[in-house]
Structures are given as C-alpha cells and as structure tokens.
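Dear colleagues,

As part of the handover before I leave the project, I'm documenting each prediction I ran so the next person doesn't have to rerun anything. This entry is a single chain, and its sequence is reproduced below.
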Amino acid sequence: MTLPSTIAEFREAYEARRPDLAAEFAELAGQREPDDHRVWIRRLGPREIAPYLERLAETDTVSPLRGVPFAIKDNIDLAGVPTTAGCPDYASTPIRSATVVERLIAAGAIPVGKTNMDQFATGLVGTRSPYGAVVNALHPDYISGGSSSGSAVAVKLGVVPFALGTDTAGSGRVPAAFNELVGFKPTRGWWSTRGVVPACRTLDCVSVFTHSIGDARTVARIAGGFDEAEPYARRIEFRDFNVYAARYGVLDPDELPHVDECYRACYADFVDGLPGEPIRLDPAPFLEAAALLYDGPWLAERYAAVGCFLEQHPEALHPVTRRIIVGGNGLSAVDCFRAQYRLAALKRETERAFRGIDVLALPTAPRIYTLTEVEAEPFGPNARLGTFTNFVNLLDFCAVAVPAGRTPAGLPFGVTLMSPAGFDFALLNAAARLVGEVVD
C-alpha cells in the first residue's frame, strides 16, 4: 500500500469513504523501517497506536488532520513514551504530551514515533546522535541537516505526511532545504514549547516539515495558540501585507559569505525570478546577529538547560555536543548584558531594513556537506550552515524554507523566506504564490 504524501490526499481518501484508512496508514507508518536512513529513535507498535485509533473511532471530530499519522522529534514529549533528546541516559517518560502534540491529537492526528536528532538539538548537521547519523533522503552520501534530521527524512521518504521538529538556530529549516521539503518556523511563542526539552529556552520554537505550504498552514492553525501555562508563550496579533505585490529583500549573490558557487548560482537564479524589483540589503546587521548565537552568551542558555545533567553524566553526551555545551559555562552576566545591548541595536537596524520590504529571501544554507566532510571537521561546517538561519529567532522573525531547484550535480537547493513576528500567514501565502501553490 502506498502512503499518501500530503494531508490533502488523506482528506480526499476520507471523502471516498474509507473508514479503515486511519488504522491502515497509521500502522503502516509505524511499521515501515527506513533503517538505512536511521530515522527513528522509537517507533510506536500497533498496540501503542491502537488507543489513538479507538479514540478517533469514538469521536466525530471534523478536522483536516483526522486519522493523519505524524512523527515527533524526540525532544518533544509524547505521553507514555520516553523522551531522550538524542541522549539515552537522559530519557524520562512524560505523563502528558507537549501542548502542540496534545492539540494535534485532539484534532485527530495519530502519532507513530519519535525521530532521531542531533543530541539536545545542538547541531545543524544531523550526525551528532548516538543512534547514528541520519542519512539524506535524496543522496545517501550527504548529511540530512539537523537538528530535526529524522523528522525531515521521515516526511521526505513518505513515512508520514508531516512531522514536528524544533528550531532554535535553523533546525527546522536546514533539514527542509537538504531534503526538498517545506519547513515552517512560526513566530516565537505562538506555538507552545511546554513539554519540549529546551535548547535555548528564550529562542526555541516548535516547527513542522511538510510537502506543501498548504499542509504547513493546516498544521499551524491547529498547533498554534496561546498557552497560559508556558511562560514564554505570546499572544500574537497577526498582521498582513499584500502578497500579490509583496516587496522582497535580498542580498547580493556575489557577496554571500561561505556560499559555494553552485548555491550562489542557484540563489542568483531565484532572485532573478522574484516578482517586482527586489531590494538589495546590507547583510551586516543580519550576519552580526547570527554570530551572536554561538559566539555570544546565548550559548550559556544551552548550559542552563542541561548543564547539571552534563556535570553528573559527562560521558553520556556525544563528544561534539559536550564540547559545545561546556563552552557556555564560562560566560558572565556582563557578557550577557553586553550582547543584549548589541542585539537591541541590531534589531533597530533590521527594522529599518524592513520598512522597505515585506519578505527577506535568503539561501537556507551556504552549501550541503557530505557525511565524510562533517566527520572529518565536525565544527566548521556546522557553524557555516547557520550563516543565514541563526539570526532569525534572535531578531524575532517567522520563516518558511522552500525548495528552490537543484545544482548541476542534482543536489537540493532551498531558500528561506522571512518576515517580522506576526506575519506568519501572510508569509505562508507569499511563499505559496512563489512556488505556484494555491492556498485556501
């Protein structure tokens, strides 16, 4: 049996009156084992999926997600299933699911497993896991991108039509680019992070991988919403712009840092195809903000999240992850305030840039690396992958990554579209228009 690849295809199947569809596809998704890609940390078996199906049969929920299987990154809680955050010794079993998971299940979606990830969501490569490096769904010699690697590959392989990831520095966008998917990172605080193992708690977002903009929007409508029990939740006042006359900001393709020539050419082609007259922006404030995330005191947030565990179980961490998180322990309160002052100034600069544009369009990543390259140099490539993603949460943007062609060698290239907080639906509509997709 072939799994539907989009939520819309599931809806069409239900309209064809196939009442057994949920059970068939949920069980197939849970049992399918792309073991050569190392997608799963924990797959649910038929007995674990059965209660969700039974609950579905007992309700008359009207929802586009009714009976749709989905996967969950293993730093997001699913009740009764261990959450490892990619570290077996860290595992604990929650009694309730994360808020976003609860909302999706209440809408009829069926969880089928927990996916592999860069340990403690620290990485953009998808290789920093004791469960094995997640292999790119298109080219097995290349990285899948991280840290939400397993979720992205599960969607691309057709195991599930959507999967949850998280995104602090680009973890919901880089894997989308490398596996030719849509990766939506909402405005920070709109989707609750209650029940999510923190990386940088003030910046963390839950994200989603899909095959289409429309599916991302469907999930967003259900997963989003204020959560009074989450201290970092925000009441979002959504704003709009004219998507039919959207003003795009870009960077000069010839001045992009760390970008290889193939990706540079792909980006130049994308810029040439944008409607209207794109405005070229000064990259300096964006790139300086990006550098603050790992060269500044926000690294201390990662130590605040799991530092006690690290001190008690130093050998439990992946060596690369341990080295990065330990580095956050030497930063001072003075460092923190100085960085916040500088970030506030950079925000003012980028706000001025957005007075003349609605959407900033950049390459999602400067290039894609092979597994061998990352194994040989685990730090440099990872740092460069965040060049155009690290600043997004610091500057309080929403963002959506979309496929944007392939290199002459057939490697995937993607761009990320971003707008200020609260323009989420306008941004998704603009993205849909760019890729030729009709969104209701």
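The two ends are 29 Å apart (CA to CA). The mean pLDDT is 92.

All the best with the project,
I.
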